[in-house]
């Protein structure tokens, strides 16, 4: 019996200790989707994206939401690069169009653009460096702004590119917003 009770108290000490150590840190902080999304440019778009996380977004920590959103952004940027390659090929004879789409390609591609910066975003998130995450997410938005307005070089863009770039920018805005919550918590 004494042996048993020592063992029991040892176990309860371990349980207590792990409860103390497992107190919520920023890494496991949970913020409701509607509270996060209220801070974004397009709250209903934001809710749709975060709630599309397999298994739902309820009770999911901020880091996991950021990770999921980075995946969405990567998918959107990849689709946009595919679209741009097609547009550059198709509009080869129109110098203004070609110049606009080629520039946008550099804003999205994996060498200089959003896909490269997304890799960096992933790294700093993994390192828990949320200030760098905020900066990198801001860069993503700066990257693609010209491709939404479509009128640099005096070119009025009639393609679907502005819509694609707008989706990407709104997804990047979610990453930016989550990074602010990560810094705050
Ligand atoms: C962006 O990603 C979302 C989620 O993966 C997808 O539903 C949507 O079709 C994508 N949009 C574009 C323009 O790639």
UniProtKB/TrEMBL annotation:
Residues 28-178 form the Pectinesterase inhibitor domain. Gene3D superfamilies: Invertase/pectin methylesterase inhibitor family protein (1.20.140.40). Keywords: Disulfide bond, Signal. Pfam families: PMEI. InterPro entries: Invertase/methylesterase_inhib (IPR035513), PCW_Enzyme_Inhibitor (IPR052421), Pectinesterase_inhib_dom (IPR006501), PMEI_plant (IPR034086). Residues 1-27 form the signal peptide. CDD domains: PMEI. It comes from the Eukaryota. One of its GO terms (molecular function) is pectinesterase inhibitor activity. Belongs to the PMEI family. This is Pectinesterase inhibitor domain-containing protein.
